[in-house]
Amino acid sequence: MQDRGEIRPLISEGIDRKTLATLYRRFMEVNQKRLRRVEQALGPRQHTVLQLIPLLFDVNHPLLPGYVSRQTPFGLPGFTPDSQQLLSAQALSRSFTYRRHPAGFSHQIQALYLMGSGGTIAQSDQSDLDIWVCHAPDLATPAVAELASKCQLITDWAATQGCEAHFHLVNPASFARGDRDNELSTEDCGSSQHYLLLDEFYRTAVLLGGRFPLWWLVPDYEEAGYPDYTRQLIDKRFIRQHESLDLGHLAQIPAGEYVGAGLWQLYKGIESPYKSVLKLVLTEVYASEHPQAQCLSLDFKRAVYANRLDVDELDPYVMLYRRLESYLLSRGETERLELIRRCLYIKADVRLSRRSGTLSWKRTLMEKLVREWQWGPRQLQQMDARNEWRVREVAQERRQLVRELTHSYRLLSHFGRSHGVINNITSRDLSLLGRRLYAAFERKAGKVEVVNPGIAPDISEDLLTLALRGDQAQPNWSLYHGTLGIGELSDQPPIKRTQHLIELLAWAHRNGLADAATRFAVHPGSSDLTEFEVNQLMTSMQQLFPLPLPALTEAALLRAAQPCQILLLVNVGLDPMPGASQKNVHLISSHTDALGYSGLRDNLIRSIDQIALNSWNELMVTRFEGEDACLLALADYLNKGRENGRVPELHARSFCRNRSAAIAERVEGLFRDAATNVLNDPPGRFLIQVQNHFNVLEQRADGIELTELPDQERLMRYLGTARPSYSRLALDGYALPGQDIGTVLQHDIPSRIQVFYRLLPGNLAEVSVLDERGAFWRSRQPYRDERTLLLPMLRFLHSIRLRRQASMTLESSLGEGEVLVYRIQPPSDGRPLHVEPIAVAAQGIETDYFPVQAIAQPADRQQLSVTIFCDQSEFSQLEYGDQLYAAAARHILGRRRSLEVYPCYITDLDLSVLDQTGNLHTVQYLRYRQQLEDTLNAALEAQRR
């Protein structure tokens, strides 16, 4: 049989050793040509590393790299170092002398293979050395651990020589059975792709030393009978078993492997799409042929058997391209084919439009392919200038890459479900991958789109121009290359256009278009934007969202996306005090609050742009503007904290013309205080004053509720509103400045009733009550002295307290504290408005007094029927009708010893019929009491006249 002819051995007809030797020689010829190409692509020091690797595993010398101990496995069958290898070893250790292994020596390393792009058109200066170390199957666990340590030491030494080398331990016996035992890392295409990994091994592996693959000697048409065929080769002694390595066959690939391979390539493709797209489409081809997929490795083997040994056409990446080309042309998908061609050209890393140092064989091969593709000089120049691509070219390329990755994801999901190979694990992985793709590529309102997922290494610009364009009804911000004058803008298409400035700047930052060296020319239009402000805004983004962002973890994808970090940019392009700026004056005022500045109480916070980075590495931009910008942004921030169980990290910045630092500090402090008070446990309320109106933030079951109170009258009404349970009301530090109500509210104590009073001009006093649920009540009364002012109120509160305790268990009633009383003191001697506690003797409350008790019951037409007891005398509406209060007033006046007129006070009120559930609290009693007292005192006044 001639070496030049096609070999088609049939074991049933017999096979001779000469035929097998011819096949072996052919495979080794291709192997050696590839190995020479690997060596040609390496620098001198890297070449030395590759040259020494077989020797380092064949010997176990303490002065050579990789020595661990005397027990470390070593010995590579059939290996004899050449003179150059010995010289390189002696350069590392002068005392090294090579000694042949004695007869009968048991070689513990069976073979070394270089995997991947080595020796192919895809090998580049950045390619690493991926080496499979196939060891004896019977190595004990400690020996395998020693061998792993040896590999790591050689990796470390190679790094000192400028060479990146990775070693993967393989037990051939367990690998052939499909038992991976985690011997190969996830960099080897994942943990569940045995046959596809074996396919890649057989078509790309370069034998560095040791046993050759037994698979070489099995014709492709005998793949299905591989076990029987190889057993006959060995049993009939056509080959010696110790010369070959059996890693298994490729008769059929399980459908689940395509799903696993696609998942892995999609995962890698999000960050580095070009290489992954090639392998994704190959997976698609294989899946389309399932269950009779014709692997590339079988094509490779058929070519060798047919004596087609052109190393260019047998290049694994050329073979890969040929298969993809045939598939896509048959489907008429020329656009996808052009993408595949670009991916291969970029992977090959040649620049045909230039005279470069590319290896001659590599350049010649790529020129041949490019001529087939009919690429012209202009297209070559564009591809070779990829490192100089600007954002427009990158965005165009991104659209096709994203389309391809999304297509692969959908195809993968459909294939897996239609073949019933989606189990719990792959279903979970598909869902995680879907989330990863969503986070990377999905468009949604407010999300900053990433246009450069590993397409161009650097798209930053030295000079950019920002301009406010459009009419007054629909202005927009546009970004341009270079420095343009206002008259040049119409002649240039913008890179990007957005409605608001921060959307544009965040996009420029996230995509690396603007970095620390970028300078901006600004045409602000009707805004107050300055170059200084733009530079400060970009610096803030670069500091708080530095690129590249941290890698997206699986743990983050298992949860819903959560905002992690928020930057608030206040008054971007706005002057909050335009009048003062135009007059070039600075207002001086004791009112320094940005939400109520100066005596005019101006709101200086006119807009807030929120940039939020979430746990899926999505950058979201939201704008709040107008008088309520701060409150709306605050409610949004609190809602994020409520939904996620914690508030995101917060930073506020402002670079506007007036009071920028104070404004940013105010916003940041306000947001932190509000979060502390509203999102605590139990939830509280937070009162904010903006100019002369008020707002209360409160946590509800469905989100943060914002209650607007336009004036102080509405505020008082809100404070007195009955509540189902206690809810603390915290005050923003600038709310109700210098007002006694603010001082009173800050003294709120849960489950305690507190009474406050202050003196007013004209012999009047103002009495305020904070009840056990935090509700507020206030009334003005004539003032004679402290005792006559307070005792009627305290007697009433004492009666209500006794009535409430009667409906409780004894233990619960003992837990209620006494009523606390305070005097409000006006500012004096540099001390602000404050309160002082007052001790009121209990016997003063319980000494003899004229008791006036009222009992209210429901009547017709939603009215109350009232009965008044004046010192045991009963006056009911059933008896007196409309004259009830007049009759009670006459009785009261008749019991007084003097004719002096002074108010009558209700000392007890029974609303038990109305309060059968016990929900009424003290303020509600006080409100009813006030109505009754006003009516009764009016009747007293009428009687006196």
SSE arrangement:
Elements: H1 17-41, H2 44-58, H3 83-92, E1 109-115, E2 129-135, H4 141-160, E3 165-170, H5 172-177, H6 194-204, E4 206-210, E5 212-213, H7 226-235, E6 244-245, H8 255-269, H9 273-289, H10 296-305, H11 316-331, H12 334-348, H13 360-373, H14 377-384, H15 391-418, H16 424-441, E7 463-469, E8 476-481, E9 496-498, H17 501-510, E10 519-523, H18 531-544, H19 554-558, E11 563-570, H20 578-583, E12 607-614, E13 619-625, H21 629-644, E14 649-654, H22 660-678, E15 685-690, E16 693-700, E17 703-709, H23 712-719, E18 729-731, H24 740-745, E19 754-760, E20 764-770, E21 776-782, H25 786-806, H26 810-814, E22 820-825, E23 834-838, H27 842-846, E24 852-858, E25 864-870, E26 873-876, H28 877-880, H29 884-895, E27 908-910, H30 922-944
Parallel strand pairs: 2-3, 5-6, 7-10, 11-14, 15-18, 19-22, 24-27
Antiparallel strand pairs: 1-2, 1-4, 7-8, 8-9, 11-12, 12-13, 15-16, 16-17, 19-20, 20-21, 22-23, 24-25, 25-26
Helix pairs in contact: 2-3, 6-10, 8-9, 8-15, 8-16, 9-11, 9-12, 9-15, 11-12, 15-16, 21-22, 29-30
